[in-house]
Design goal:
single chain, mainly beta, Thrombin, subunit H, 6-stranded antiparallel barrel, 1 helix, 7 strands
């Protein structure tokens, strides 16, 4: 039996600066991959599954500048699954629950440039 991909949106590898708030504190991290539906990133602290977060992603533009894409999301997965004092970074998967049209446009354009 093979693995069946459940995601509906194409993911692309991306190392983007991300700022998150809504969990224990405000923090900065780095994305591992991103799609128009969500983001997978590294966080310096543990975030409980189902935590609602506000995210700001810095998206590079063709002219060399960056645009901020702001959205809300919910944590759907954390690795490791439990807080561990010996861990310095957690991998966190977030599903976007709300993103404004301008941010969606910037994000979609960036993802399409990586797919092409």
């Amino acid at each position: 039996m093979g693995f069946k991909e459940k995601r509906k949106a194409k993911r692309v590898d991306a190392r983007l600066a991300i700022t998150l708030s809504g969990g224990k504190e405000k923090a900065e991290g780095e994305t591992l991959n991103i799609s128009t539906n969500g983001v997978y990133f590294q966080s310096p602290f543990f975030v409980e599954p189902l935590t609602k977060l506000r995210l700001e992603l810095m998206i590079p533009q063709p002219d060399g500048r960056e645009s901020a894409a702001k959205c809300d999301g919910i944590v759907v997965r954390v690795e490791p699954e439990r807080e561990d004092p010996s861990v310095d970074k957690y991998n966190v998967a977030v599903f976007f629950t709300s993103i404004d049209k301008g941010s969606q446009k910037v994000l979609t354009k960036y993802i399409m440039s990586k797919i092409s």
